[in-house]
Design goal:
By secondary structure, the chain is an all-alpha fold. It has one domain. The protein contains eleven helices and no strands. The chain is globular and about 50 Å long.
Length: 264
């Protein structure tokens, strides 16, 4: 499949879920397009950053972005992302991909549990829009936001992903942000974290296949425009289950390929 078509599918996921760009593009770049794990991580940051920007158009239009919290959360991820980018260069490719797969599996399990809780609430009529109401601001909330942002940034830079696969669960499970707003906040943070991750790789000697990267990015950006409107038609709990299923699928593929020694 051509990079632009693969990118289109990845973009649909990012626009709909506020996540998925990095967790899909890194394995695809490594196992299907035969890039090294470290080059794939750098290319992925370009892809995810542009896709998140296009994916933001719909939530901005629908006023789903809580800008104060989104920018604060995103800014905190930057410091962690810069550190993570440097740390990733100290780890061999197989270990990088293996630890990535394990992390995906853990996050997927947490999101499955949240999906069950959300579905029960919807069935009881407790969550007619599962709300768009944010939890009240407090010192504890801001401390949790800073901690979650730092952790997300560190992993974003380390694995070369936009961080949405971790941001959305943290925002929903820890900070109690409604899923649709968490998706919008994640897209803002993904743009900032991707930029920081790229800056952290400057001067490291990594080279990118710009033809593949640009084609992939173009397709992904187009898909990102369509993903938001599609997600608006789906129940929040269904989005949560789809997100968890995506994580499980990518985790299995990544771990199987890592164990079997498939690489660029």
């Amino acid at each position: 499949m051509e990079p632009i078509l693969i990118g289109l599918l990845v973009g649909l996921v990012v626009g709909a879920l506020g996540a998925g760009g990095g967790i899909l593009s890194v394995p695809i770049l490594v196992y299907a397009l035969h890039q090294s794990p470290h080059s794939a991580a750098a290319s992925s940051l370009v892809i995810v950053g542009f896709t998140a920007m296009t994916g933001l158009i719909f939530p901005i239009r629908e006023r789903l972005v809580p800008w104060g919290r989104a920018l604060a959360f995103g800014a905190v991820t930057v410091a962690g992302s810069l550190l993570g980018s440097r740390l990733s260069l100290l780890v061999d490719g197989a270990s990088l991909m293996g630890s990535f797969g394990v992390l995906l599996a853990v996050v997927a399990a947490a999101m499955l549990g949240q999906g069950v809780v959300d579905r029960r609430a919807e069935d009881r009529g407790d969550a007619s829009d599962a709300g768009l109401t944010l939890p009240a601001a407090s010192t504890r909330l801001w401390v949790s936001t800073v901690a979650a942002g730092l952790l997300t940034g560190l992993l974003t830079g380390f694995f070369g992903v936009g961080g949405g696969f971790l941001m959305v669960p943290l925002l929903v499970l820890v900070l109690r942000v409604p899923l649709r707003r968490a998706t919008a906040m994640s897209l803002v943070a993904m743009v900032l974290a991707s930029l920081a991750g790229l800056l952290g790789r400057l001067g490291t000697g990594l080279t990118l296949d710009w033809t593949v990267t640009v084609l992939f990015t173009a397709g992904s950006a187009l898909g990102g425009l369509a993903g938001g409107p599609l997600a608006a038609r789906v129940r929040p709990s269904t989005l949560t289950f789809l997100f968890a299923g995506l994580l499980i699928a990518v985790a299995v593929v990544t771990l199987v390929n890592t164990v079997s020694g498939v690489s660029a």
